[in-house]
Structure formats: structure tokens, C-alpha cells
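Q: My labmate handed me this sequence with no annotations at all. I'd like to see what the chain might look like in three dimensions before we decide whether it's worth expressing. Could you predict it?
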Amino acid sequence: MNYPLTSINPNAIIGSNVQIDPFTVIHEDVQIGEGSWIGSNVTIFPGARIGKNVKIFPGAVISAIPQDLKFGGEITTAEIGDNTTIRECVTVNRGTSDRQKTVIGPNCLIMAYVHIAHDCVIGNQCIIANAVQLAGHVNVGDFAIIGGSSAVHQFGQIGRHVMISGGSLVRKDVPPFTKSGREPLTYAGVNSIGLKRRGFTDELINEIQEVYRFLYNKGLNTNDALEQIEKSIRKSPERDEIIDFIRNSERGIMKG
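A: Here is what I predict for the chain of 256 residues:
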């Protein structure tokens, strides 16, 4: 259902059973999947690729050009996965020539006043709380939760199943399965409650905790800790995910 006070470019591709409320503007080169709802006073710029059953609340601006002085007008996209909710006044910029796209995965909740800059990639089933600010090129792993009013430095890496406390300044990479807080941002344990809710066994959680004991509690430098982890803890996808994340971190990981 589209109201007469909407402005929808005739070249936009709108799926079936999409409701677009009054005073919303949808530009050319926009795709919106079936069953989605677009609230009033939303602006959707060229390059938006919005999935099925997405909810976008009033005041959001999707796929505006990057806030990057190097941007040269290249054709890029901002992609939002199925069943994701975008709350009031969220801004999602489209990509640059670096990645060509900004991506929010399916089943995410992006709360009010969040900013997601160009070339960010957010995984599946993430929760990004009110007023979080993600600079460009940030990666957020599946099931991550970022507390309200946090800010993430450009090119930051946030692992899967992470929980970051509200008001955090995320200057370093945050490894998978962890909790973090304080200032400067510091390891605060394994996100054991979140992992249990997602079906991780007690045995696997204990092994993840042991990995982080080597990293943060035994007085080892990072390289020595990784060597000890590989020698002492049985090989598993989770162990190797942590090791690979840390070895590939360009900014370095948060401290203990």
C-alpha cells in the first residue's frame, strides 16, 4: 500500500505487499523486497537493496553517499538483509570503491540514531543499540551485541558472539566470543551466557575460556600465547577462529 503523499521513482523495484507510508522518498535504483514496511519521512537513495520483511522506521536515511572525501561518485550499494529492523533516524551510507557495498545481514536489530558508515559489513542476528557510531570499513561478526552510544574506529574488527558494553570507545579489535567494557576497552570475560543461549555446550565454553586465559591471564605476549594455545588446547573451529582473528588483526586486539 502506497499513499499519495509518497514520492517513488518509477524505476524503483518494489516487491509485493510492501507498505510505504506518507512523506517518504524513494529514488531510482532502489529494490525493496516483499512484505517490507517503510515508515513515514524515510529517504532511500540510489543503490539501496532492501530484503524481504524489513521494517524501516521514520526518519531513517538509507544508501546516502559516503561521508568520505575520496568518494568519486562510483556506483555502489547499501544492502539490508531479510527480517532486519531499522529504527528511527538510523543512517546507512553506501559503499565506496574499496568494497563496493555496505552490508547489514538478516535478522538484525539496528536501534535508533545508529550510524553505519561506508563499507561496513554487519553479520547475521546482530543487535546494535541506540546511537552507536560505526566508522567506515568496520566488520561486525554474527550475533554481536554493541551497547548504546559506543563508537567503533574505522577498519575495526568485531568478532562473532561478542558483547560490548554501552558507551565504549572501540579503538582495537574485539576477538570472538568475548565480553568487553571499561575505558580503555578491556577484556571482561567470555560471553558465556550468550553462548549458552545459542547452544554452545559447557565443554566448548570452557575450552574458549581456556584459550583466553592463555591470552589474558598468564602473562604471555600474544605470539607466545598463540603458540601455547595451539600446543595445549585441542583443535576446534572455535579455537582456530580465535587464533585466525588475532593473527589477522591489523589494529591489534583489546587488552586484558
